[in-house]
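Hello,

Following up on my earlier ticket. Below are the two sequence lines again, exactly as submitted.
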Amino acid sequence: MTDVVILGVGIHPFGRFETSYEDMGSQAAAAALRDAGVEWSQIGAAFLARMYLPATSGARILRRLGSTDIPIADIEAACASGGAALRQAVLTIRSGEADLVLVLGCEKMPRGFMDPANLYSAWQIQLGMSLNPAYWAIRARRHMYEYGTTEEQIAKVAVKNHKNSVGNPNSMYQKAFSLEQILASPLVCDPMHLLEVCSPNDGAAAVVLASEKRARELGVTGKAIKIAAISHSIARYSADFRCPVDSLSATINNPGPTAVAAQQAYERAGLGPDDIDCFEVQDTDAFCEIEAYEDLGLCRRGDGGRLLDEGITEIGGAKPVNMSGGLISKGEPIGASHLGQVHEIVCQLRGAAGPRQVAKPKVGLAHVLGAGGNSAITILKT
Amino acid sequence: MSVPEQDRRGRSPVREGLLTEPLENLSAVRLLGVHCSTCGETTFGLKTICPNCGRDTVEARPLSGQGSLWSYTIVRHRPPGDYRGPEPFSPFGLGLVELPDGVRVLSPLDCPVEELAVGMPLRFEPRVWRDGEREVVGFAFAAAGGAEAP
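Thanks for your patience. The regenerated structure is below:
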């Protein structure tokens, strides 16, 4: 099978900007091309990950880099859109159709709660089920009930991620908060507080991929990062409680979408959780990160809170998670979020992550999870 | 619970296939599900294919009116969009109600938020609101030990 490598990454900061999506997206794409040392005219195919942008946004954005007739398609899989688009790019290279492919994630989202009509049926909206954090909170409450996970442990995720974001110029908040401040922030949906949930916002991130052969021809193998595995999975029957699910089975326990995507990615990479040096995981809400620890195999089911008590997932810990500050502090421009994670892992593996740098990582994992039980996982290695 | 004749005629479900009909006698209304004779799974809402096994061996079945709270949250802000809950808005419980049929249904919880607790017994309660000339029937669950609605 053709090996696929990342030649370059680029990012437009995540936050709230007057800048148009076309400008944000084309800036991130141009930065990735510069980082890769290749020209736009050399790219053989491109994909845009997005959820809320208009039709053919990919072509609208990328035309700004110059006239082209290559295939450009928009890809959507909710919070996993970036993973789905990256996967299409990898498959395009493996098919042999193109050996240099650009993947862009871009989003420009309205402030506040997301438009419910995009995710929910009218009856769910009328009955008050259209608040995404409610679903996260209901999962968190059950975990607390079954395993004794505490509000303090959940808040520690937010403390850690907000703290990490201070070292990330591409993050929206870049502001540290104490445990007391997190727990004193307003409740959105009990037990989730405002500083424990991410904001939908604006941003873009891009990746230039090549076949290993093309990378060698371009003479850039030295700094290239390999894609060890990529997987995208949607939740099996009753395996995930996330909008817009209206019910669950009380009799069937299927593994969740993160666990399924992780198993696929680990198998494809020939690696396990013990081999991975740093992680960027979905933290749309603070509890989601604890659940990711368990589904990714960092600890046993129900034991996620302990990793926070013991500092294991701090930048200096044994298993650093969300060195970038996570979505809690960066915000979540949905189409861009996974490629933003990939940007962070690439910086980490290059030793270029500045104050966020993990000690000599060789393998990193990026994970997203969202509506419809969409989960995508990318494993990168030096 | 006396409702004028024209209102009874103008009563419709919040969505077809979620509630048993007719809707005239609200105390007889239940959530509607389907039971699959191939895999034995019961799911919420009328459908023609079992979402577990993919077979068409499903038949409609009213779901139990009694359940218990599996997990919950308190929604502190008015949900976005065309929300039709009680006015003026106040924080309300929203939770997964486990029914003896083997299904957990997401439902608004009509009880004081400070009384919510995992495991509490609940009973089905149609929720009715006006939409212009017509009455719409949705659903909620209330504390099973609580007083009957007037």
